[in-house]
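Request: How about a record?
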Amino acid sequence: MTRPATHIIRLLKWGRTLGRHGALRGIERDPNTPPAVRRLSRIARFGARQSAQPDYARAFQEIGPAAIKLGQTLATRPDLVGEDAVRNLLSLQDSLPPVPFAAIEAQIERSFERPASDLFASIDPDPVGAASIAQVHKGVTTDGRTVAIKVLRPGIREKFARDIATYEWAAAHLEALGGESARLRPRLTIANFKRWTNRELDLRREAASASELAASMRGFPGYAIPAIDWDRTNGRVMTIEWIDGVKISDIAALKAAGHDLPELARRLVLAFLTQAISGGFFHADMHQGNLFVRPDGTIVAIDFGIMGRIDRRARQWLAEILYGLTTGDYRRVAEIHFEAQYVPPHHSVDEFATALRAVGEPMRGKPVSELSVGQMLDGLFAITRDFDMQTQPHLLLLQKTMVMVEGIATQLHPAINMWDVSAPFVKNWIRDELGPEAALADRLREDVGTLLRLPALVRRLEERYPPRGGAPEPPPLPEIELITRRREGGGGWFGYVLAALAGAALFWAGAHVGWPL
């Protein structure tokens, strides 16, 4: 276990880097910052020359790989770090200088325990991408297929484990301060971050995620997932189909290729809604660098290290919330928040509905280009504070991905109205999943399942209470205190001696009276 002094030294070192880039200024000025955190920030930046404008992205990039991933996670938490920090963190690029090819080739051979030439006819030594956790090389398999080879950076798992241990220690102490720090649940945020990064650090799980998403999206035209080469994939190396296409962020190239940009924007939004609401399993790292457009117009997603999952009940709540916001039914949206226990029951449903109306009404019927995301977030997070809503970490990935999808869709089609695109899909899903037919089908499914479980229940009862055999029931036996059960305290042995003497006296008296012995 890491000593507290080690955690403190790491935090002060990271804090000094943040201080040089002016990234502690907002923490020190925020009235909600606990005094202890404010004092630690001042100690960390003591003597450092601060930049004129805070540059959170540059600071996290300088601290290292785990900090880059943490910064991307915090970019989904304006309630935790502030709107200005979020805007800056959204520019955080997950890129680092590449590892020398010799180390990558050694990693491949060590993980497969065989020469790389047995698996690949050739590997381009220059990576096509180098991120904080892994880097990707283009290669050709021994059977002639062009593939992308993703390889973990050597030693990255150990480095992440050290840094995350300090994040957990800091989050626990921050939450223990109570008040606003406890409401924002930083420990749960770090726990989710740890789970996400552990998934990214096992490339077999990423390959499995890609395979599962491909199966769930098979019926959605115009959206594809690269095929996995399982024979050349393990925990540290993943091999997938190579994608030839235009990055979805290259608007000029898309126009030159004759693609319908408004249609691409609409299809991207619907693909995300299909994944998140219909399937409950979605690509949660849908930024511009992970989406390509093939010559036939198919959108292809890559990089499946971060995936989100939502259970069916939460999806029903989410769909009703989205539909309520698009139709202006704020009362129903408020009721769902209380049903899901997102809002403590001592608050008023009507007051919460009015607060939602104040945020939602200015947004309805307007294209994204005319909306002030800053004002909307300010309003939403004011509501969370006023109504004592705890952060729901299981929805953080969804929130992050929604922001990414909205940003890309707006670049493709600035006049897109997200409500107009989303409403028909959500309405149909609610009809199919929450309508009378669906309710009847759910009830039949549950009741049939209960009936099918009855035989197993009867068998367990028979095992617990077996039938009587041919022998008669034995008579009840008296409870006898055993000598091995010592009583606490003194005098235990005296009782045993007294009982022995009494027994001997009865034996002697019985012998003289003539009792048969």
In short: The mean pLDDT is 80. The chain has 22 helices and eleven strands. The first strand starts at residue 120 and ends at 123. Residues 436-464 form the longest helix (29 residues).
